[in-house]
UniProtKB/TrEMBL annotation:
Residues 186-217 are annotated as: Disordered. Gene3D superfamilies: alpha/beta hydrolase (3.40.50.1820). GO terms for cellular component: membrane. It comes from Enhygromyxa salina. This is Beta-ketoadipate enol-lactone hydrolase. The keyword Repeat does not apply. The lineage of its organism: Bacteria, Pseudomonadati, Myxococcota, Polyangia, Nannocystales. InterPro entries: AB_hydrolase_1, AB_hydrolase_fold, AB_hydrolase_sf. It comes from the Bacteria. Keywords: Hydrolase. Residues 20-123 form the AB hydrolase-1 domain.
Length: 217
């Protein structure tokens, strides 16, 4: 785990493997460790770089809340610190928003762009079906075990919901950096709407809105 001092905080990052660089940007509330299942096989042929977004994991606090552009600048600062001119960039969920914005702001730094399970508008990010609404409610109220298991059912595929669910929740807690019964303050602000800076028709329709640029803790 490396550490990079920024003007207002410290950014933690992981580097594994040798070869062309893959920059991995994860969803809201998750730390870089969430990419371990991908880093393990890819690091044989690729240099994998994953960043703990400010306010999460081993990174420092996020003074004044979070902004998409701010987290993009952090990721670019990590690449600069490592002497990496260009990377394949992949992002999951909110990380897809970061990856998209990074490609718009720094096209010369992006060898390719992968957007995984992400969204284009704040409305898409926060819309809930009956199941998600019910699980979200149970993740917010009730006993700690009820909240923990409800959150686990929100984030894990059905194939992972077998056997000892308490042990499974504990494993996921190490990835998120906190007990799943406790909602991280960053997660509570993830539904705010934002606008991608200088959207282009090559990557998104002009005027596209993206969620999460203003997330207060």
């Amino acid at each position: 785990m490396g550490q990079l001092r920024r003007p207002d905080t410290t950014i933690a990052f992981q580097v594994r493997g040798l070869g062309p660089t893959v920059l991995m940007l994860q969803g809201v509330g998750a730390r870089a460790l969430v990419w371990a299942p991908q880093m393990d096989p890819l690091s044989d042929r690729w240099q994998c770089v994953a960043v703990d977004n400010r306010g999460l994991g081993d990174s420092g606090a996020a003074p004044g809340g979070l902004r998409i552009g701010q987290m993009v600048d952090d990721a670019i600062a990590v690449l600069d610190h490592l002497g990496i001119a260009r990377a394949h960039v992949i992002g999951h969920s909110m990380g897809g928003i970061l990856a998209h914005q990074l490609a718009l702001d720094h096209p010369d730094r992006v060898a390719s762009l992968g957007l995984l399970c992400t969204f284009t508008t704040g409305k898409e990010a926060v819309s809930l079906g009956p199941r998600s609404f019910a699980l979200g409610l149970r993740a917010a109220i009730g006993t700690r075990r009820m909240r923990r298991l409800a959150f686990l059912r929100l984030i894990a595929p059905s194939s992972a919901l077998q056997g000892d669910l308490d042990a499974t929740a504990e494993r996921h807690a190490r990835v998120f950096g906190h007990d799943l019964a406790d909602r991280h303050p960053i997660s509570r602000g993830s539904g705010c709407e934002s606008r991608v800076r200088d959207p282009t028709t090559a990557l998104a329709p002009a005027g596209s809105h993206f969620a999460g640029s203003e997330m207060q803790d």
